[in-house]
Design a protein that fits this description.
Glutaredoxin; alpha+beta; 4-stranded mixed sheet; 4 strands; binds glutathione; 7% strand; Glutathione S-transferase Yfyf (Class Pi), Chain A, domain 2; 2 domains
Length: 205
C-alpha cells in the first residue's frame, strides 16, 4: 500500500491518520506543493486531478481523501470504524460529506488568511467575517456532539476523521474560539489518540 502526498496537507493527514487507526503501515511518498511530482505523467495516470492524496492499494488507485477514508474503513476496519447498519453507516457518510462541503469551505479561508497570506496582503474585514461563519458551523458540530461521544455515535468511526482533522486546525489557529463544551470534550479525546497526534497535530504551514 502507498499513500502519496505532503504531510502538511489536511487531506493527506486524514488518510495517514486513518491508516494509523487501522494499524496499516503504507509506504508514504511525499509529493505535492513545494515537493512537486503531481504533474508527472505517472502521477496524473493515478490522479488526473493532480492533487494529493492518492492511495494505491492492491492494484487500485484512489483519490478524494474522504473516499479513501471510507475505502480503508470498510476494507480494513471493523463495524465500529465503518458501521454495517445502513442507517448508522449513512449517518457517518453524511458528516464526512458535510466536512467537505460545509466545514472545510468555512474554515479554509480562515486558515489561508492566517497561515498562507503575508501580513501586508491580509484583509481583516474578510477574515473577521470568515471567522464568524466558521464559528457558526462549529456550533452545529457542538450540538451534534451534545449526546454522542463521537460524531457517528458512541464509538470512534470513519466519521470522526475528516471532521477531526479540520477541528484540529481550527483550535490551532490564533483566533477567538467560542466555548463549545461538547466539541471541546470530543476534540480532547481525539488528542489522546496516537495516530491523531502523529499525523494531524503538526505545526500549521
Ligand atoms: N477534494 C480533494 C481535495 C484535494 C486537495 O485539494 N489537495 C490539496 C492539498 S490539501 C492539493 O493537492 N494541493 C496542491 C498540491 O499540494 O500540490 C480531497 O479531499 O482529496
Amino acid at each position: 500500500m502507498k499513500v502519496w502526498g505532503r504531510p502538511n496537507s489536511i487531506n493527506v493527514q486524514k488518510v495517514l491518520w486513518c491508516c494509523g487507526e487501522l494499524n496499516l503501515s503504507p509506504e508514504h511518498i511525499v509529493v505535492g506543493g513545494e515537493f512537486g511530482g503531481t504533474d508527472d505523467p505517472k502521477y496524473i495516470e493515478m490522479n488526473p486531478n493532480r492533487l494529493v492524496p492518492t492511495l494505491e492499494d492492491d492494484g487500485l488507485s484512489l483519490w478524494e481523501s474522504n473516499v479513501i477514508v471510507r475505502y480503508l474503513a470498510q476494507r480494513y476496519g471493523d463495524a465500529r470504524m465503518c458501521p454495517v447498519d445502513i442507517r448508522r453507516r449513512f449517518d457517518c457518510e453524511r458528516w464526512m460529506d458535510w466536512q467537505a462541503t460545509t466545514l472545510w469551505p468555512a474554515l479554509r479561508p480562515v486558515f489561508i488568511g492566517l497561515i498562507r497570506t503575508p501580513n501586508d496582503q491580509r484583509d481583516p474585514a474578510a477574515q473577521k467575517k470568515a471567522e464568524a461563519r466558521c464559528a457558526a458551523v462549529m456550533a452545529m458540530l457542538d450540538e451534534r456532539l451534545a449526546d454522542r461521544r463521537f460524531v457517528g455515535g458512541g464509538a470512534f468511526s470513519m466519521a470522526d476523521i475528516p471532521v477531526g482533522a479540520s477541528v484540529y486546525r481550527w483550535y490551532a489557529l490564533d483566533i477567538v474560539h467560542p466555548k463549545f463544551a461538547n466539541l471541546r470534550r470530543w476534540y480532547d479525546s481525539l488528542t489522546e489518540r496516537l495516530a491523531f497526534r502523529k499525523e494531524v497535530m503538526l505545526p500549521l504551514s
